Amino acid sequence: MTxxxxxxxxSEKTELHSRNKxxxxxxxxxxxxxxxxxxxxxxxxxxxxxSIDFFNPEAVKKLNAALLKYFYNIQxxxxxxxxxIPPIPGRADYIHYMADLLGSxxxxxxxxxxxxxxxxxxxxxxxxxPIIGTKEYGWSFVGSDIDKIAINSSINIINSNPSLKNxxxxxxxxxxxxxxxxxxxxxxxxxxxxxxxxxxxxxxxMEGTQRKLKNLGSKKFKNVTLNFxxxxxxxxxxxxxxxxxKKMIEESDFYSSSCYWFSTLVSKSSHLSDxxxxxxxxxxxxxxxxxxxxxxxxxxxxxxxxxxKNQQKEWxxxxxx
Length: 321
What we know:
The chain has 321 residues and is an alpha/beta fold. It has a single domain, classed as Rossmann fold (3-Layer(aba) Sandwich). The chain contains 10 helices and 9 strands. The protein has helices spanning 28-34, 57-72, 88-104, 128-137, 148-159, 202-215, 232-235, 240-254, 272-281, 309-319; strands spanning 43-44, 50-51, 117-121, 140-145, 168-172, 189-194, 259-266, 286-294, 297-305. A hairpin with a 5-residue loop joins strand 1 and strand 2. Helix 1 (28-34) packs across helix 2, helix 3 crosses helix 4 and helix 8 (240-254) runs parallel beside helix 9 (272-281). The N and C termini lie far apart (58 Å). 38% of the residues are buried. Mean pLDDT is 88; it is low at 1-6 and 221-228.
């Protein structure tokens, strides 16, 4: 294959959820038409296809802004330098699978509208999960975070887009807890979502980032820092993903009647057995594991509920009708 020849890519990313708007390849002419600032970062790659440099954080940020504007009518989106730039297709998948989970308890009819309240643990500076959930299903959201700059950034995104006002609320988590201090008395969430910190230390996070870039073929990986990949609090915590999820499960027991479905992403399949053991300890009624894939990245959602069948029916009558 010469550099002038186009590489053949699948026309559809079939591994993504069937309702995911990002299953088709990026249409850069249409994205640029919607968001002109993207144009400066689009060029023809060695395969003869239009693309961006995915190792350039500014290019990825502009692509995200274009995707959010074109697909979700978000007119103003930006995040502070060095904060996590999320992959929009993967974020959308999580939301769609959680919609299916709610629908599975409702005669396969997805509950829609502002009465459905979701909690995003670790909303970050980007507010992407609430944006997609609000735009796709009309849900209301609360987003929490331990980082004041991240919270202020998400609030700015909400205030800069009239369609998001009165549907998304951001709450600063002052303590080291996950649900305590965020879920209020007599407040009921239909679902919680979370993309927990993957790593157990800054060093591990940097090694993981460099390994990922090397596998992707970047020649720059030796000099790459975490600047394009997120703040420390977004990427690592003591004990890593497994410890964070264990703490989440322990706390969820106290709020067992305040939420229909708790959930979290789990990046490492080796953590599943320990997660299931923790869920058994708190006597959850039901556990669901939902596999997800984006390109070569394999992940999964683990969701759990404490509500038995009768309690679920009562919840639906009270909150979904």
